[in-house]
């Protein structure tokens, strides 16, 4: 092994992540489909066919397995499974069961997300996660999905980035405000935490072999200067830390990290003009991943292991993707050397996909032709897959 490599522990998950709405296409019964087609939003283009992965999932999994990965995180779509309240699509359940089994057949550990930003439109119209019966409705959905997880699935994400879900609700109510200074909606935040705990209880009751957790968007809040520590902590708590604290009783927690946010006494600072930026306008800061896992571990404690469920960069320069990921993995290796219990790294994203309003930000290891849906693995995919096959990451 090279001197600049870190040997991964046995059973470490190395793979990539996707989300149903962003790659499947035609998710017409969801709240996001309705939002994309509403007038007066900032959505630049609707999701449409996305990457047509609802039909091409076998090809996607074949590519990931052939590249050398041993894990694939994907989501099941509540709006397909329960398009109308109380009306369950057994065809959709069978479809996702085939995906779960297909991952296992290809040697990919299926990490299955039950809610990745999108809800059935009927649920959203009834108040979404702020409604009094939201936790019960979500728990009922999890009970419906449980049979398709039974056996092949060992890691389940109840809700993806609840802090961003609650923030998006607040932004929709004040679309012209500076979203960096808006706090997540309080009622939605409370509802999401209750729904997560209810879902976790259902999974523990029905599927004792499944390890349940949720994933948090880690902003890597940093004090902008001496004396800004208290302001930074106060800013971080409603936007991130309260959701990490809610995972203290979980089987694991997902860390999702891309960049950092510097916070001064009067609030977050913009990305410096002279900093390198990605397509999304975020600061190029690969060291964020190491800081995010350390921060999460400090809050949840040693009894809750971590899986990096998203980390990546929106760039048209694939060589820069490799550079970024090299730095991120080196920071992760340093944290693991220092004792942080990390069980996996799942890159965002497996495919170039629909990034919530636009196809311009390209996070994928695999390019997708928007017309033919032809998949083309990028050099970064072969590079990262090679690390997975070798069982090591840059140190």
UniProtKB/TrEMBL annotation:
One of its GO terms (cellular component) is cytosol. PROSITE patterns: GLYCOSYL_HYDROL_F1_2 (PS00653). Its EC number is 3.2.1.85. Keywords: Glycosidase, Hydrolase. One of its GO terms (biological process) is carbohydrate catabolic process. It comes from Actinomadura verrucosospora. InterPro entries: GH (IPR017853), GH_1_N_CS (IPR033132), Glyco_hydro_1 (IPR001360). This is Beta-glucosidase. Gene3D superfamilies: Glycosidases (3.20.20.80). Belongs to the glycosyl hydrolase 1 family. One of its GO terms (molecular function) is 6-phospho-beta-galactosidase activity.
